[in-house]
Amino acid sequence: MTAALMKSVLSALLLMLSFPAAAEDDWASLTPLPDAEGFAGSFAGVSSGALLVAGGTHFPDKRPWEGGTKVWYDTIYALEKPDGKWVKAGKLPRPNGYGVSITTEDGLICIGGGDATANFRDVFRLRYAEGKITTQALPMLPKPCAFMAGVEMNGTVYVAGGIETPAATAALGTLWALDLKQTGEGWRELAPCPGSARILATMAACDGMLYFISGAALKPDVGGKPARVWLNDAWSFRPNQGWKKIADIPRVAVAAPSPAPVVDGHIFILGGDDGALVDFEPKEKHPGFPREILSYHPGSNTWNGVGELPFSLVTSPSVEWLGCTVIAGGEARPGKRSPAVWRGRLVAP
């Protein structure tokens, strides 16, 4: 073990001792992000024991139905301990949102994303130390991509779906893989999911298997703009063996926090948009997204409802930090972000 890695492990252990106690399946709020509006589509993860939240979007003036303009951000915030204060630790290479976040032992990997005019191929690692961020470039994606899903399994990062351009009316039906031990070989293209190409799915890794759940396909509406087709199918993928359809998720869960937490062999889907209120009026009274927690057990190929969340947040990464699942910010309802940061300990049913 290197001196740097040992220091990181010791730091994490010390922080765990200070983490506020939580009952099983209990959720509690942490220090909110230092922005009154909050962000959706941020990158989030852990480096050197600190929680990082970077980039994302919000509407600083008016809501979208009032003519407001969505703005992309590049600020990186760090929280060194659960009861501490957020600090500005650095900036992303450029304003960015709606990519994939992967926490590794060596920092937070940020994949793809985009802004109002273009999606990106960028892949880079953020490392946090002594209050500052350093950035390491990694092999670029085969294509620009945002609104995709991703997860790390056995030292390889997998990315599936998404869109190549902000105005695309069809999703990418792709599965890419990057071996973190051999990054010089770049991304490999693997067999795509046999289901519909999609955006905003949720991915998980459990016992050597990838899981690709829900999301939305795209098609052009009568005006030629992208319209969602809500999906409730779910799939598994084992490297060198391929894809297999599994039991449909009981309800659609678009943009649920991803990667999905895995506890004792159960995969948890935290909320997500089911599309039921997509045309809700008046928009400013929208009640938010479903709060139901769903659990999938691969051994029995079954889904179960296992409680409710105290929050309604989508387009936010799920982060494992100090033995808990953390959701930092996100979209609380259409056009409205949240600075809230939540942590909970999930328990398998």
Describe this structure in words.
With 349 residues, the chain is mostly beta strands. The protein has one domain (27-342): Neuraminidase, CATH 2.120.10. It has one helix and 26 strands. It has one helix spanning 3-18; strands spanning 27-30, 43-47, 50-58, 71-79, 87-91, 100-104, 107-111, 123-129, 132-137, 149-153, 156-160, 175-179, 188-190, 202-206, 209-213, 216-220, 226-230, 234-238, 242-246, 262-263, 266-270, 292-297, 302-308, 318-321, 324-333, 336-344. A four-stranded antiparallel sheet has the order 1-26-25-24, with no helix packed on it. It has a four-stranded antiparallel sheet with strand order 2-3-4-5, with no helix packed on it. It has a four-stranded antiparallel sheet with strand order 6-7-8-9, with no helix packed on it. The radius of gyration is 19 Å and the shape is globular. Mean pLDDT is 93; it is low at 1-24.
